[in-house]
Amino acid sequence: MKKAVAIDEHLRFEQMISNLSARFINLPGERIDEEIENALAELLDIFQVDRCALLLTMPGKEAWQITHVAASADAPTVPKNTILPRSINPWAYGQLTERGEAVCFSNFDQVPPEAHVDKQTWASWGIRSNLCIPILLGNSVGHLIAINSITRERSWPAEYIPRLQLLGEIFVNSLERRKAELALIASEERIRLAAAAADAGLWEICIDTGWLWATDKTREIFHFSPDEELSFERFLETVHPDDRESAQATLARCLETRDMVRLEYRILQPDGSMRWIVSRGRSCPATSEQTERVMGVVVDITERKEMDARINDQMVEIQELKDQLEQENIYLRDEIVHQQGHEGIVAHSSAMKKILAQLEQVADTDATVLLTGETGTGKELLAQRIHSLSRRRKRALVTINCAALPPTLIEGELFGREKGAYTGALTRMAGRFEVANHSTFFLDEVGELSPELQAKLLRVLEEGRFERLGSTKTQTVDVRIIAATNRDLAQEVAAGRFRSDLYYRLNVFPIAIPPLRERPEDVPPLVWMFVKHNEKTLGKHIDRISRKSLSALQRHAWPGNCRELRNIVEHAMILSKGEILQIHTPESKSASTPPAATLDEVDRRHIQAVLTKTGWRISGPNGAAEILGLKRTTLQSKMKKLGIQRSTE
Asked: Which CATH number does the domain 2-180 belong to among 3.40.462.20, 3.40.50.2020, 3.30.450.40, 3.30.470.30?
């Protein structure tokens, strides 16, 4: 018997949903509330329960509101529009509104202990069995259907839950449709007011007939005569041929989505001139009194479009200048410390005077210069002098040490990268070539470049073009190149480690800088230059330098050249306690001690000595990087390359 009742209940429920689906299609807005409550009353009869209600989740999701309700005579009265705060049903609120799960129990024994507050509320309402179904609105729970049994306990078959959700969606869709219709009415009124204030034209298209209604302002914009019969086809005749397809597609989309649409297009005037127009409109579905139509507003925006085009051109130019200036400022900020201390070039020797004459000859041209010489001979200082004498001196000299960065980073530094070009590339970065556009680019230690980067560098030198990492867009630059190396590039070419075509492209104007040991007459003025610079940083004053010290310095071989001399002078000044400076040359190795095989060994010993004196402090005032005249990152790179590590003993 119970099985037959259940089957009958289920059939009646399914029949109800089928009938409601048909009944709510195009249901007038004024009848929606009545029909929802009639449907809730049907649920009372089908399920033999005492209360059915539709609830709305309030903004802020801290309460429900009963919007529609049907109840039997046995059920305590719960008025429509009653607000049910979360605090009286905290457990059910979490289940339904936050997790989107149904709350279903035949008796209180099926309710978990954590719902003790909810039990008290349900008991006060006389509820014995309860079924609450969440109804999604978008991606959140916007409504609930609640069914209460008060006079008896009853079970809730699981297959009812999705069907009740479907019923709730029928209700909610009808309510949302009415809400949209009311909003459209209000929107149309606002459009009329706005049109009058903005000197805009109004229009309406009848979809069935194509008939077009237009205000006087609309007729003026399109040059329609006051008594002319208008249609959508007549409107399309005025539209620029290239924009007609877009106008038709926009109308079709408006009818399909019912959304507000916007279209900018061109129209042709009787005199052959062209104007820019913007139209906004929304479709209105057919009713018992009116056929389907689209209505909207039209404004002539020709002057605004012309102004936008001018502003856009100006903004592009401003942005390019801003980006260039920003990159130069960033570069100058990073390089300012590195460039401090270059107060002049000492050229007492005939060899250095010859070098300066060569600089003056080539500086005012755009010829590529290749500076060769041992480490520490001042190649970067000479590159700065060439740039300062060139036509490009108004822009910053851009430098990069090709040996200071690993191959994986040097390419990005040279040519830039796009966001996401590789793991960790979180932003777009302009490369040094872009920063150096219309300026001079100094490539120090160019002999350290990998074969792949040599090929890319050659292309920039020959064509002035390259691509950022992660981009296929070609960048074009106008850059004057000064390269430097302590290697014999001719031997590197012969050994197959350096491209011959790149070598010949760099070797346009070679300048070979002699080592310090070959120009001893430059040692005394160099010493005094370093002393004057260090007086400022160390806060000491030196009146004299012993003749014995200067003679010894002139006789020294200086494998580290000017850089080694500068460091020796600074070390002596740190130890000095008076105004007479005593400088001790580095100790010579005994005959039994084999000489250093490479400059790397010299650099290693010298860097270790400075680190020991500074207590292994790398950065900051009087740190090893400052004493050595290097960037912190460059010193750390050299330490890694030379295997210099602080002992942990």
From this structure: 3.30.450.40
